[in-house]
Amino acid sequence: MAAPRSAAAVVGAVVDPELPMVTLVELGIVREVREDAGAVLVTITPTYSGCPAMEAIRDDILGALRRAGWTHAVVRTRIAPAWTTDWISESGRRKLAEAGIAPPGAAPRRAAGPVPLTLTPRPVVIACPRCGDTATEEIAAFGATACRELRRCPACGEPFEHMKEI
């Protein structure tokens, strides 16, 4: 019997269930893929603690590994350090933009310790993924998922989603 494909290659091809234009690796959700004595351990980090797609992500990874011949596989969730949109690869950002989703900018930097409360809105400049104009406006704070918002570009008239910086 032939050895199964590399577990890292198998996991690297699994797409995100909510953003199927990018892989879990491109989103930075996959932290580690380790092969040991015929078994595979995959470590993932959710995009945020309440992410409803985590069960589907785990099932998709395990299913892909089983179809590739890996019968002993475990997916472990690690929450620290917390995932950040800075972990999205350049190819992932490019694919989001090509699909009409404005990729996130740099995640906000905070010092260790308590998170300061600010009551004023942060200035936001989000370029339209279709025409590039930066005078876009928020339509709704949440899109198809909690990590996206709905925006509109007055220049070209197109609505689009923006993946929020986390």
Write the layout of secondary structure elements.
Layout: H1 7-12, H2 24-27, E1 30-36, E2 39-44, H3 54-67, E3 72-77, H4 90-98, E4 101-102, E5 137-140, E6 148-152, E7 159-163
Parallel strand pairs: 2-3, 4-7
Antiparallel strand pairs: 1-2, 5-6, 6-7
What does this structure look like?
With 166 residues, the protein is an alpha/beta fold. Helix content is 20%, strand content 21%. The protein has 4 helices and 7 strands; from the N terminus they run H-H-E-E-H-E-H-E-E-E-E. It has helices at 7-12, 24-27, 54-67, 90-98; strands at residues 30-36, 39-44, 72-77, 101-102, 137-140, 148-152, 159-163. Strands 4-7-6-5 form a 4-stranded mixed beta sheet. The longest helix is centred in the middle third of the chain and has 14 residues, at 54-67. It starts with 6 loop residues before the first helix and ends with a strand.
Point out poorly predicted stretches.
Answer: none
How many strand units?
7
Structural class: alpha/beta
Describe the global form: globular
Q: What's the pLDDT, averaged over the residues? A: 90
> How helical, in percent, are the residues?
10-25%
Radius of gyration based on Cα positions = 18 Å
**DSSP summary: helix tally:** 4
Order of helices and strands: HHEEHEHEEEE
Strand order of the largest sheet: 4-7-6-5
Span between N and C termini? 45 Å
Strand coverage percent: 15-25%
Largest sheet: 4 strands, mixed
